[in-house]
Design a protein that fits this description.
This protein is mainly α. The protein folds into 2 domains: 40 residues; 237 residues, Orthogonal Bundle (MetI-like fold), CATH 1.10.3720. It is 69% helix and 0% strand. It contains 14 helices and no strands. The longest helix has 32 residues.
Length: 312
C-alpha cells in the first residue's frame, strides 16, 4: 500500500521592522538617491501639515509669545464669523460661474478649431497664449483694462455707445466679481480648449459618418455623439476646475484687494488676511482646513454622482 507524502507548507516569513531595515540596508544606494526628495517632502509637506494641525488648536499670534491651547475654538468660530461666510459665498459664486463658462468656451473653441480650417495651428496658439501668461502679469493687464479713467474697456464701450459714462469695474461691488470672473475665463479657456481637442480627436470618425448617413444634423451629432464621448474630459475639467476655483487668490489680491464691501473676498484671500495681516495664524490655519474639507466634500460628490456617467 503506497503512502502519499504530504508536502508541508513553508512557514511564512515574518516581515517586521528588522526585515524592512535589512532590506533598506541591502538597497541603500536606491534610498541614497531618493533621500534628497524624501527629506524635502518630509520637511516641507509632512512636517508642515503636522505643525499646521498643531497651530490650529492654539491661539497662535505671531507677535504674542503666549500661544495658549484653545482646542476647537478656532473651528467653532468659523460658523459665527460673518466675514468668513461672505468669503465662502463669494467663492461659491466665483466657482459657479467661472468653471462652467470656461468649460463651455473651451468646448466651443475646440469644436471650431477641430475643423479643417486654414492656419488653425496659429489660432490654437493664439487662444492658448493666456494660459502660459504668468497669472500676475495677466491680472495686472486686466486691472489696467478695467481702469475707470483710461482703461480699454471703458474706451471701446463708449466708442460703441454701449455706455455713456465710465464704469469703475473693480470699485463697484455689484460688478467687481463678474469682472474678475471674466478675466478668469479669458485665462483658462485655452487650457480647456486643448484638453477638449485631445478628447475630440480620440472620437472615431466612423461615428459621425454613420450619423450623417442616418440623416443626423450637426446639432444631433453634437448632442448624441460629441457630448457623451467627451464626458470623461468634461469630468476631468470639472473636478480640477472646482478645486482651482475654490483656491482663487492671485486675481483677487492684485485686481481688487478684496473689493469694496468685501465683494470679491474669497476664502483663500480671507485666510491670507487673517494670517499675514491680522497675524492670527491659529484661526487662519483653521480656515485652511475648513477649505480642505469643503474641497474634499465637493470632489467626493462629483466622483460619486458624475464618474459613472462620464465612463464610456
Amino acid at each position: 500500500m503506497a503512502v502519499t507524502a504530504v508536502k508541508a507548507k513553508p512557514a511564512r516569513r515574518k516581515r517586521g521592522p528588522f526585515y524592512v531595515f535589512r532590506r533598506m540596508r541591502e538597497e541603500w544606494s536606491a534610498y541614497a538617491m531618493l533621500s534628497p526628495g524624501l527629506i524635502l517632502f518630509a520637511v516641507f509637506v509632512v512636517f508642515s501639515i503636522g505643525f499646521s494641525v498643531y497651530i490650529s488648536f492654539h491661539q497662535w499670534d505671531i507677535l504674542n509669545p503666549s500661544k495658549p491651547w484653545v482646542g476647537l475654538d478656532n473651528y467653532t468660530r468659523l460658523k459665527d464669523d460673518p466675514y468668513f461666510k461672505k468669503a465662502l459665498y463669494n467663492t461659491f459664486i466665483y466657482t459657479m460661474f467661472s468653471v462652467p463658462l470656461t468649460m463651455a468656451g473651451g468646448l466651443a473653441l475646440a469644436l471650431l478649431l477641430n475643423q479643417g480650417l486654414r492656419a488653425r495651428a496659429i489660432f490654437r496658439t493664439i487662444f492658448f497664449l493666456p494660459v502660459v501668461t504668468p497669472l500676475v502679469v495677466a491680472a495686472l493687464i486686466w486691472k489696467w483694462v478695467y481702469n475707470g479713467d483710461f482703461g480699454l474697456a471703458n474706451y471701446y464701450l463708449m466708442k460703441l455707445h454701449i455706455i455713456s459714462h465710465p464704469v469703475f469695474w473693480l470699485s463697484d461691488p455689484d460688478i467687481a466679481m463678474p469682472a474678475v470672473i471674466a478675466m478668469t475665463i479669458w485665462k483658462g479657456v485655452g487650457f480647456a480648449m486643448v484638453i477638449y481637442l485631445a478628447g475630440l480627436q480620440a472620437i472615431p470618425e466612423e461615428y459621425y459618418e454613420a450619423a450623417k448617413v442616418d440623416g443626423a444634423g450637426p446639432l444631433h451629432r453634437l448632442r448624441y455623439i460629441t457630448v457623451p464621448l467627451v464626458a470623461p474630459t468634461s469630468f476631468f475639467l470639472l473636478v480640477i476646475g472646482v478645486i482651482g476655483a475654490f483656491q482663487v487668490f492671485t486675481e483677487v489680491f492684485i485686481m481688487t484687494g478684496g473689493g469694496p464691501l468685501q465683494a470679491t473676498s474669497t476664502i483663500v484671500f480671507y485666510l491670507w488676511n487673517m494670517g499675514f495681516k491680522q497675524f492670527q495664524m491659529g484661526y487662519a490655519t483653521a480656515i485652511a482646513y475648513a477649505l480642505f474639507g469643503i474641497i474634499f466634500l465637493f470632489t467626493c460628490i462629483q466622483v460619486r454622482f458624475l464618474y459613472r456617467e462620464a465612463e464610456y
